[in-house]
């Protein structure tokens, strides 16, 4: 869908005086535009479709036997819920690179000349990326079941784990959109993103239990939101361990990140110069 096509239904009041119904129409049009881009550029879904399969196979068959004394099926049940926590982070980083690239191509400048709420552009991206996170999580679960993952609770608990993972991943999207608008190039976004991702991913309970970690690292993992999300997903799918506490902490992180970072991202979008 071209920018010119979108302009017609978006004529109206200037930014800041747009009513809720008009804002929803603008978001809907932008969501359709972003979805159409994926349709015509199928490689945009490559990370969502391929990365869960690659990670599941790689870590299970390279590290799984060593971590569980050769019992890879045990590691699958530990690792798959943890990987649900990591998927959103990987996809969130890709949107930061995409936002930076859109600014460099002038796409965002055209959006900012339209009489639409500035937040609608970012919210539309958030919705589409949340959909990609959901697809990625479903692919991961299918791969997990093929590899022997056992759901010991029920479909309601599994859906709760998926929803929690997507919700938290969506909150991370605001951080990477802000990062994408703050870094000068896509390469800079990628480099800074990896500096954020690596400690969060490997300094967590995603890949291995924290009991054998040194005290200083174990203290970091206890405050790492990815650890709490991984623990919540495991408790929801296995029926073992506390559920309420890690779920509430994860929800708290998601709400806090959104409340703090989303206004900063919208302000940066409004004030950024190309």
Automatic annotation (TrEMBL):
Which PROSITE patterns does this one have?
ABC_TM2
Which terms in the Gene Ontology molecular function aspect does this entry carry?
A: ABC-type transporter activity
Domain called ABC transmembrane type-2: residue spans: 43-272
Cellular-component GO terms for this entry? ATP-binding cassette (ABC) transporter complex
* Cited PANTHER family: NODULATION PROTEIN J
Lineage of the organism: Bacteria, Bacillati, Actinomycetota, Actinomycetes, Kitasatosporales
What keywords would UniProt list here? Antibiotic resistance, Cell membrane, Membrane, Transmembrane, Transmembrane helix, Transport
* Annotated GO biological process: response to antibiotic
- Any one Pfam family here would be ABC2_membrane
The answer, when asked if tRNA processing is one of the entry's keywords, is no
Q: What is its main location?
A: membrane
Question: What is this protein identified as?
Answer: Transport permease protein
